[in-house]
Amino acid sequence: MALPRNEETDQLFRSILVLRNVDECYQYFEDLCTVREIQSIAQRLAVARMLADGQSYQSTTSGTGASSATISRVKRSLDYGAGGYALILDRLTGREEMT
């Protein structure tokens, strides 16, 4: 199921796109989300990175503390999702190689 597009969601995404650096992200997301929500999103990205690198479910669980349900959900998104994880992981890898 695709994320429904509407003006509120578009505005949310536009607001993220105008952030200039990690410090601004911390400021904005601290106001926007709970600490737990941010930790959950960060954990999903870590799970995606480990799975994309070929790590097993067991090593991903021990490396991230994520539940098997979270790992399965992320794996499903990697395999059948919209391609967002792959896009971001590719870009992050490219940025890391440049620095």
Q: What does this 3D model show about the protein?
A:
It is a single chain. This protein has one domain (20-98): Trp Operon Repressor, Chain A, CATH 1.10.1270.10. Helices cover 77% and strands 0% of the residues. It contains 6 helices and no strands. Helix 3 runs antiparallel to helix 4 (57-64) and helix 3 (35-52) packs across helix 5. The model has no long low-confidence stretch (mean pLDDT 94).
How would you summarize this macromolecular structure in one to three sentences?
With 99 residues, the protein is mostly helical. It contains six helices and no strands.
Topology:
Layout: H1 7-17, H2 22-32, H3 35-52, H4 57-64, H5 68-80, H6 84-98
Helix pairs in contact: 3-4, 3-5
- The CATH C-level name is Mainly Alpha
Low-confidence stretches: none
Rg computed from alpha carbons, rounded to a whole number of angstroms? 15 Å
Run of helices and strands: HHHHHH
Structural features:
99 residues; mainly alpha; Trp Operon Repressor, Chain A; 0% strand
